[in-house]
Write a structure and sequence with these properties.
nine-stranded mixed β-sheet; 294 residues; globular; alpha+beta
Length: 294
């Protein structure tokens, strides 16, 4: 069995507990096809569409920005996106999402109970990994030792989940409150990932096994996961590949953003001005935007 750290490890310069994730930007090969799929299978609403890009969400907050690259090839054995998690505000909303998948006859890859949250996994038309998730109340969360000690995620009790909306007709569109819950990456080294995301950016370690780490702010189970399941030492993604263009960390103030930028620059890592924040690339050239909320 994999060995896990016995205690969560706090960064010496922790990110604020009020951190949240903003939109994930994805490269897709056919924007029309992807927008139609996300609208029908997941019930997302199109907030804005212009040229080769479209923003989608719950009608209030954007969770995805899709950007078309007609030359984009399927992802291969390299760093990049494993999956991103759309976080529903309640178990009932996750159940309604499940009913929608059934009504649309959308294939899924799996369904798990992590103790901290329940999840359904599926790919989009380009194979980008998606997790549909709903958190359990925090007081019910197992510790990392308990979760991994039981052998990892358990099968999701789909019947029990669907019972929360029994008798309801399928709902075509997602309800209010959908947000980006976490991002999970393929990387070339867990230790290098910890040095960047914990020692520089400031995430705390929630759990660490030899092949993966889960990091967060404010005691959350994870805002970010990264693993070496595509192999140790995998390279950055080549150009014109479907998958993650960038992901977004949102903080409460420009002062909090400036603190993170100071750590990045002190580590000798380039930071590029971007809107109300900056963009920095991890050791595998994966961009993350650190910004103040509007």
């Amino acid at each position: 069995m994999n060995t896990i750290t016995l205690e969560a490890r706090q960064s010496s310069t922790p990110l604020p507990a009020g951190l949240s994730l903003g939109p994930v930007h994805l490269t897709v090969s056919n924007l029309d096809r992807s927008v139609e799929w996300y609208a029908s299978a997941l019930g997302l609403r199109v907030h804005e569409r212009a040229g080769d890009a479209a923003e989608l969400g719950d009608g209030t907050a954007g969770v995805l920005v899709l950007v078309e690259d007609q030359q984009a090839a399927p992802a291969g054995r390299h760093a990049g996106l494993y999956h991103y998690a759309l976080l529903y505000p309640s178990r009932e909303e996750l159940a309604r999402a499940t009913v929608r998948l059934v009504a649309q006859q959308t294939p899924v890859q799996g369904a798990s109970d992590h103790g901290t949250h329940e999840a359904i996994y599926l790919p989009d038309p380009d194979g980008n990994g998606i997790e549909l998730a709903a958190d359990r109340p925090r007081e019910q969360w197992p510790s990392p030792e308990e979760e991994f000690g039981r052998g990892g995620p358990q099968p999701l009790d789909v019947e029990d989940l669907l019972a929360t909306v029994a008798g309801e007709a399928p709902v075509a569109k997602v309800g209010d409150g959908l947000r980006m819950g976490h991002v999970h990456l393929h990387v070339g080294s867990v230790e290098d990932g910890l040095r960047f995301y914990t020692d520089v950016i400031g995430f705390d370690v929630w759990a660490h096994i030899p092949s993966a780490a889960f990091v967060s702010a404010g005691g959350y189970h994870h805002h970010l996961g990264f693993n070496t399941w595509r192999g140790d030492g995998v390279p950055p993604a080549p150009e014109h590949t479907v998958g993650l263009r960038r992901w977004t960390v949102q903080l409460d103030s420009a002062a909090e953003v400036a603190e993170v930028r100071a750590r990045v620059e002190a580590a000798g890592i380039a930071a590029e001005d971007a809107g109300n924040g900056f963009t920095v690339r991890d050791p595998w050239r994966i961009p993350v935007r650190i910004e103040a909320r509007a």
